[in-house]
Structures are given as structure tokens and as C-alpha cells.
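Standup notes, structure subgroup. Blocker cleared on the zinc ion input:
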Amino acid sequence: VRTDVIPRNTRQRTVILETVRTLGNHPSADEVFEAVRHKLPRVSLSTVYRNLEFLANSGLIRKLEMGGLPVRFDSTVSPHFHIRCISCNRIDDLRGRRVVVVEDARDFDHDYEVLGYQVEFIGLCSNCRAESSPHHEPSAC
Ligand SMILES: [Zn+2]
Ligand SMILES: [Zn+2]
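Run returned:
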């Protein structure tokens, strides 16, 4: 297959999708942009952003809006929860046993049509815990 017959927009989108998948761990648009520039030297941040929005709207990736941070993107689209480090803002998937924390919204008194919910776990990642540990503090002298 000759790549030059594939429309440029489609090729850009494919490269951006592959980059989100390769980067893993919930990259921001800036991080995707930095990684994608090697393959698409003339691409702009706004083009990358527009493509990420398109891919999210198509359900190929997930858009994560957490803790007022810049939007992150997730190549894992199946339902899963996240945990965010409050110190470095790293975001990881919560793996293992299914976590059930959400009460059934129908049990509450409200006048909303419920469309979904967001759950964000917060904590300190192992790197940040190591840094704040007294054993690693530089000595005063
Ligand atoms: Zn951290
Ligand atoms: Zn995730």
C-alpha cells in the first residue's frame, strides 16, 4: 500500500491514535504533540488537539477530565477507574478486583436524567512517597 494515496487527514489521525496507544498512561495533548512531531514534522498542536477530540467523539479513545487538570487521553476505552497522584498528577488505571463505590442514583431524590458518573481516586504515587520520605531528605549540614 502506497502511503501517499491515503488522504493526509486520515494518515494524521492514524498516527495520532497509534501515538496515544504507544504512549499509554493517559498523555495530555501536549505530550501527544511532542511524540507525534517526529512522524508528522509539520503538524500543529491545534491539529493534534482537533484529531484527539475527533477520536474521543468516535469512541476510539477516552477523554479524561480530572481535578481541573489539562485534559488527558486514554487508549483504554473499556470502563475502568483511575487514581491520580496529588503531588505529580500522574494518572494510573486501577486494576484488580472490581471497585464498586457508586450508589444507585435512582435512590436519591433529584430531578436529573442521569447520564453517567465520574469517580476519581487520589493518592500519592510510589515516586512521590519515596521523595517525601525522611530517609531521602538531604542532610542539613
Ligand atoms: Zn506522584
Ligand atoms: Zn485509564
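Discussed briefly. The mean pLDDT is 84.
Next: hand off to the docking folks.
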